[in-house]
């Protein structure tokens, strides 16, 4: 059974006249007649009866015509959907993140991507900041979220998403020293540190190293959950995001020092030379929607 035969059947049913239906379909009258004959043979049913000046549907034809119209409507919708898909952006993205997925709104970004760009598959991997930025530059990672400062990275398009505050936090048992100690006193206490090349290290440098203070590091890790766990267990002090710090203090397992705090900017970046690629434009658009605001773009070339 061919869709052309079904279209002829519906046209004749609507026109009530073989010749007018053929003209409407831009086919000859014999061709229209052969279409109906083929359908009648296929169904094993008579579809029309001749009358003076035209044709009428048989009872069988009346029962079938609405079903045929549904089939033709579904076929048209299928073709339309196929054309839409053909025009949609497709591809694969590797997205890196050195920041908390909740803070990055990765879940919401993924939901927007699935809704608006269903032909783009996305793989998300966690890397610390230095490795993630290197991955973007080398092409291992297409784009990524990281914590840094609201300054453009050379060769990258950067979108600043928000500013995060980090507090000096220690175990609740050290409350007296934390509440009364200055930065010099705190520096001599045990610290949980991270490797260089990330925002955590830079924030500590801005608080302590620029004042000539060296921290007494006892543990090194690049994982924020490990840091929070070790602080709560009494291993040492560290910098912890303000919301986690406040919750830890509320739960009675941490204490926030009033001696100082630091800030880091949550950023999204991808290679400048790839800014016109459809998949990256789709990802940027999804991030802007997920953050529900117009995010400024920072360009390294325009930095002062």
Describe this structure in words.
This protein has helices at 3-15, 18-25, 29-43, 59-87, 101-104, 106-116, 129-138, 175-180, 183-187, 199-207, 224-232, 242-250, 278-291, and strands at 48-51, 54-57, 91-97, 120-126, 143-148, 156-171, 190-193, 216-220, 238-241, 254-271, 298-299. It has three domains: 3-87, Winged helix-like DNA-binding domain superfamily/Winged helix DNA-binding domain (Arc Repressor Mutant, subunit A), CATH 1.10.10.10; 91-162 and 266-302, Periplasmic binding protein-like II (D-Maltodextrin-Binding Protein, domain 2, 3-Layer(aba) Sandwich), CATH 3.40.190; 163-264, Periplasmic binding protein-like II (D-Maltodextrin-Binding Protein, domain 2, 3-Layer(aba) Sandwich), CATH 3.40.190.10. It is built from 13 helices and eleven strands. The strands form three sheets. Strands 3, 4, 5, 6, 9, 10 and 11 form a seven-stranded mixed sheet that branches. The radius of gyration is 34 Å and the shape is rod-shaped. The protein is 47% helix and 25% strand. Residues 298-304 have low confidence and may be disordered. Helix 1 (3-15) crosses helix 3 and helix 2 (18-25) crosses helix 3. The chain is α/β, with parallel strands linked by helices and 304 residues long.
Q: Strand-residue fraction?
A: 25-35%
Helix content: 40-55%
Instruction: Quickly give the structural class.
Output: alpha/beta
Distance between the termini: 70 Å
The radius of gyration computed from the alpha-carbon positions, rounded to a whole number of angstroms, is 34 Å
Topology as a string of helices (H) and strands (E): HHHEEHEHHEHEEHHEHEHEHEHE
CATH-level-2 architecture of the largest domain: 3-Layer(aba) Sandwich
